[in-house]
């Protein structure tokens, strides 16, 4: 395995870890949600993040890292893909507003990450996986933004 493939494997492994963290994030938020509708939404988001993790694991097992078009580590590093997967910490005392802001940032980062990966793979089936994941993360972000606009923004 080339060092470029190993670097992509590390990125995909990090993405899997972030999907796992997103699942935990939404599950915990659902446990603390006061409104039934919020709880249902958060449980659904957690379920979808679990699905994203499984898609990534499956693609990794199918030789995904052999399909990327970057030739060198330098080319890959210039793209700085890991910037999209930064973890934004929350405190136990975080407000609903804080939680929504962090969730929106996480979804935005995941969207940008999967969009970039879709443009880098030479394999149409893997491109479709990343495009699907990007689309789902974008929908999550838009949904969370609309909740923010409805529930937080009017009070500011």
- Please tell me what the overall shape is: elongated
Per the CATH scheme, the topology name is Ferritin
How many domains is the backbone divided into?
1
Query: Unreliable segments (pLDDT under 50, ≥5 consecutive)?
Result: none
The rounded Rg comes to 17 Å
Annotation field: number of helices: 5
The average pLDDT value, as a whole number, equals: 83
CATH top level is Mainly Alpha
Strand content: under 5%
- The assigned CATH architecture is Up-down Bundle
CATH superfamily grouping: Ferritin, core subunit, four-helix bundle
Provide structural commentary:
This protein has 156 residues and is an all-alpha fold. The chain has a single domain, classed as Ferritin, core subunit, four-helix bundle (Ferritin, Up-down Bundle), CATH 1.20.1260.10. The protein is built from 5 helices and no strands. α2 packs antiparallel against α5 and α4 packs antiparallel against α5.
